[in-house]
Write a structure and sequence with these properties.
The chain is an alpha/beta fold. The protein is about 35% helix and about 20% strand.
Length: about 375
């Protein structure tokens, strides 16, 4: 057991201990108990923030390094979402340190080895039923650091009312606008690591569906990992693959066609595309004017028909575009986040014992969180 794991913070211990009560009672009882006990221990006048537990797997050497040595590093993270959070936003300070009353805050991060990662995931799934046994894996895109990726997953889980377990997969993006080619090489080098991580999650005892939400360049990485699983004889993560949601996918159309040929039409793949995505317009230019999947004009019937023949569900989010680049609409537009929430909350055959639609993240007081 690693030393950092043994020195888990008080906040981490309290929250994970409360959540793990799910093994002893029904999910609604355990989450209600966790909410009550944490609020009682740390009451404050401004009301509770939400603490979203997130596991992470990363090919980065560290949070502060954009290098890689081929090792997968694991951690458990506690992300605090402020009480006044607005759907589609990641509230960050303009300057200075983040305040949990107003901002997203990383309350704690504890490193895990591979076995500890698997055991922590199994512990958090144990005792859950229905949709709360599901796992949502988020794979970030180009020019994105680990902090932004963690916050984005916490935001989507909160806004989408996801009651399962969140896992973020980060890779060594340089976090620079002019480092596109370098990021693509790092993403390529992370394919095996993501393939292993998805396989480990799918093999977790009691796990339900394993959903994959990927953004931008991360969609290519996610599809490559799923393609490798299929080639190895583990089509659909051996029956555990849930929704595969590709947001603003930075994938060449011909490449995507080949990926789908391996992944198979049985996979529930969705594409969230915007014809006005400026970031993908730049990517297309870099690729020699090769059109990207996420920038297709879905209103064109021939284009839509070609993609739908692959067994893919298409969402045209052009009208919902946010920001100057129109590239982060999947998470910044409340209407689109709601669609994602509905997709990962729907019942399928693997969920016959479902009894709950949503178990909310555990609240924690924003004033006395260090006491």
């Amino acid at each position: 057991m690693s030393a950092s794991y043994a020195r888990a913070s008080l906040v981490t211990i309290m929250v994970f201990a409360a959540v793990s009560l799910a093994a002893c009672s029904s999910p609604i009882e355990s989450f209600t108990g966790a909410t009550a006990s944490v609020s009682k221990m740390m009451s404050g006048p401004t009301g509770p923030a939400r603490v979203v537990p997130i596991l992470s797997a990363s090919t980065r050497k560290s949070d502060t390094s954009n290098g890689s040595d081929g090792t997968i590093r694991y951690a458990q993270n506690m992300i605090s979402v402020p009480p006044g959070h607005k759907s589609g936003s990641i509230e960050l300070p303009t300057y200075g340190k983040p305040d949990p009353k107003n901002n997203f805050v990383l309350l704690s991060q504890n490193e895990l080895d591979e076995d500890e990662f698997k055991n922590t995931l199994a512990t958090n799934i144990s005792g859950r039923v229905g949709q709360n046994r599901d796992v949502l894996v988020f794979v970030h895109g180009f020019n994105t650091g680990p902090e932004e990726a963690r916050n984005r997953l916490a935001q989507v889980m909160t806004d989408g009312h996801f009651g399962g377990v969140g896992v973020v997969f980060t890779w060594p993006s340089k976090g620079a606008l002019l480092a596109y080619e370098a990021d693509k090489e790092h993403a390529t080098a992370s394919r095996d690591a993501l393939e292993q991580t998805l396989g480990d999650i799918a093999a977790t005892p009691g796990v339900g569906r394993v959903h994959v939400l990927a953004h931008s360049m991360g969609t290519w990485l996610a599809m490559e990992a799923l393609r490798q699983h299929a080639i190895a004889g583990h089509m659909g993560l051996d029956g555990h693959l849930g929704e595969v949601m590709l947001a603003a996918p930075d994938i060449d159309i011909d490449v995507f066609r080949q990926q789908m040929a391996r992944v198979g039409k049985s996979a529930k793949v969705s594409v969230f595309a915007s014809a006005g995505d400026r970031a993908l317009g730049i990517s297309s230019k870099i690729a020699g004017d090769r059109l990207r999947l996420g920038a297709l004009d879905i209103k064109d019937e021939a284009t839509r028909s070609e993609i739908e023949k692959l067994g893919v569900q298409i969402y045209d989010i052009t009208a919902d575009a946010t920001g100057f680049m129109h590239h982060d609409t999947f998470a910044e537009a409340p209407t689109v986040v709601a669609v994602i929430g509905q997709k990962i909350g729907s019942t399928t055959d693997v969920q016959q014992q479902a009894t709950l639609d949503y178990a909310p993240p555990v609240p924690v007081d924003t004033v006395n969180r260090d006491r």
